[in-house]
Amino acid sequence: MHKIAVMGDKxxxxxxxxxxxxxxxxxxxxxxxxxxxxxxxxxxxxxIYITEDTAVDIMDEISRYRSSYFPAIILIPGSKGSLGIGxxxxxESIEKAVGADILAHNE
Amino acid sequence: MARLNVNPTRMVLTNxxxxxxxxxxxxxxxxxxxxxxxxKFLAIVRxxxxxxxxxxxxxxxxxxxFVMARALMSDTHLEEALIFPKQKVTLKASSKNIMSVKxxxxxxxxxxxTGDDIFPYGFASTSGELDGAMxxxxxxxxxxLRLAELEKTAQLMADEIEKTRRRVNxxxxxxxxxxxxxIKYIVMKLDxxxxxxxxxxxxxxxxxxxxxxxxxxxxxxxx
Lengths: 107, 223
Hints:
The complex is a heterodimer. By secondary structure, chain A is an alpha/beta fold. Chain A has helices at residues 10-18, 30-42, 52-55, 59-64, 85-98, and strands spanning 3-8, 22-25, 45-51, 72-76. In chain A, strand 1, helix 1 (10-18) and strand 2 form a beta-alpha-beta unit. Chain B contains four helices and two strands, in the order ααββαα. Chain B has helices at 10-72, 75-82, 128-213, 215-222; strands spanning 87-98, 101-112. Chain B is rod-shaped. The chains are: A alpha/beta, B mainly alpha.
């Protein structure tokens, strides 16, 4: 059995608590966020959603988990709207595999 | 292409030929693997992109509803309403094998209250906007999980494709040409040795015949 965590600013993620996800509000420094992410990953969370606003600071930490099987770290837009980082991740995957974003016209 | 540093002997030649055969077969297999991975990857990534757009759209809706709810309720009230969830989502993560890439499959089940009654609060002290937000959020959940599955799969497959492509290229442009060149070099060297040996034997034979029959002297006498 695995757990689902949601990280981000409190205003964005409060609702997820009600549908049964574990929420971890954080607005602290870069190190604090990175530390939280790492401890969640070690804690057996298979799925960690992070709001894009929070993710911007800790891109290095996130990309560290990219090629490992667990946890899956998925960016979701925060309450301030999408920053396009999540979409960029998809684009990066395509570019890595194909060499160029051949599906770019879909955007 | 650089020739391998080996002794030009028959034994090395046999070994190299065997290596070349293996390399060719490996190259063909890896190429097939790469093509198939690419096919599957593109299908997944297309879906991934569609799902992401959908989720971002839906979440935007959820957030706007929450903003309304927050405007009408105090922070403490809102928090109090949501802090004790009625349902619990449990996630079962299993793995699936796509062309030897281990990818996650998420199955989730909700425990506790079933049906439409998802509100973990009484209606007396909360605003109606919060209900709308909760329903919208409830609808996004399956899509969120599907998105997670697709996105992780796409990432893992992209890694594998990159690795496979590198291997294919290494075999195609480095390993196989250098093996071919070395084999050619050894064959030529062996042929050259063979020719050298043959001429030497012919020369020796001439000398031995000369010793036995003294052709040159006889030729001189007849003149």
